[in-house]
Specification:
34% helix, 3-stranded antiparallel β-sheet, globular, single chain
């Protein structure tokens, strides 16, 4: 367990001010995102039946939290994200092209390595919207990324207006680069080091094409093979000047179609997944073509409120030694 302890850290807002500011950030961003992307809020499950294939297996090694429902005598899993469920819901609810949904997603990731940026508790805005097959292009992906970034930029302006002591150094436009281009620029650095370098240089960057193997023989980062198209996805990253690190705000992408699904599952030796209902529906073209992603709620609050630790903006579980160490460094957890 590591915690990026900031030397001489002094939080800008105290605990009570922070709680009020968290609500301001969340309410403002949610409202502006809905307007920009044409999204409708829907209710979403906290747990799903594993047989459906709707749960997200992330990098493939994280163990999902499960329990048995007594009356059904059936085991269900706490969601790890709603990437697949949203696409299913858009088709089931009869949404039209360019209409979308969002929900407040809460998850438990028991295998998460705890540090200043990660906790067991995950909270994010999960969003998804229907597109046409011909929209499955890099140019359309970039258009949506720019729209989301405009909302983030506007939020920073509104937060600064509400809390004058919170100042930001965000550019008006976001920078785009692929993982291959990033590897070529910094071949001797690790993927995370490359992110730190490009984020500090550009302040706001969208790193595209995550999941496939690079020249090094390894992917930039792990991605499940059955929801994002690895050629049409990416991470939205800001430079966090408090911790002097790249700071991922969102992971998103255009979803797999019937062709990229098979290709990516084959690359990860997971063709057995084609037998679950979710993958069958993609192959049979019963699900709409979509674009979607998750935007970290606590991550966004941490960035906007100039916090050094995610525990300052969300209530989770931490070890006693960690709590004591952080308090000694002016980091007080909720």
């Amino acid at each position: 367990m590591s915690h990026l302890l900031v030397e001489d850290y002094k939080p800008v807002l105290d605990v009570l001010e922070t709680e009020k500011a968290i609500k301001f950030v969340r309410d403002t961003f949610e409202r502006e995102l809905c307007k920009k992307l044409n999204l409708t809020r829907v209710s979403a499950p906290l747990f799903v039946n594993p047989k459906t294939g709707l749960n997200d297996n992330l990098n493939g090694y994280e163990k999902r939290v499960s329990f048995t429902i007594k009356d059904l005598n059936e085991e269900v899993e706490i969601v790890q994200s709603l990437a697949k469920w949203k696409r299913y819901a858009l088709g089931k609810y009869g949404f039209n092209v360019y209409d979308g949904i969002y929900t407040n997603m809460n998850a438990i990731r028991k295998d998460e390595e705890l540090d200043a940026l990660h906790s067991v508790y995950v909270d994010q805005w999960d969003w998804e919207k229907i597109i046409k097959k011909e929209d499955r292009t890099k140019s359309y992906l970039k258009k949506v990324v720019k729209d989301i970034y405009k909302v983030i930029y506007k939020l920073s302006v509104l937060v600064n207006k509400e809390y004058n002591e919170l100042k930001f150094d965000l550019p008006k436009d976001i920078y785009f680069i692929t993982t291959k281009e990033l590897e070529k620029l910094f071949p001797d650095n690790t993927p995370k080091e490359r992110e730190d370098i490009i984020a500090k240089e550009q302040k706001a960057v969208f790193i595209m094409e995550i999941g496939a193997k690079l020249k090094s023989g390894k992917p930039h980062d792990g991605r499940a093979a059955d929801y994002d198209d690895w050629k049409l996805n990416g991470d939205l990253i800001l430079y966090n000047d408090v911790i002097d690190k790249a700071f991922e705000i969102s992971s998103m992408g255009i979803r797999v179609d019937e062709n990229s699904l098979v290709k990516q599952l084959k690359e990860k030796n997971e063709l057995d997944k084609l037998d679950n209902d979710y993958c069958k529906n993609i192959l049979e073209k019963k699900l709409p073509y979509t674009i979607g992603g998750g935007i970290g709620q606590s991550r966004l609050c941490m960035y906007m409120l100039k916090k050094a630790h995610i525990g300052e903006v969300q209530a989770s579980i931490w070890g006693e030694d960690t709590i004591k160490l952080l308090e000694e460094n002016n980091i007080f957890l909720l």
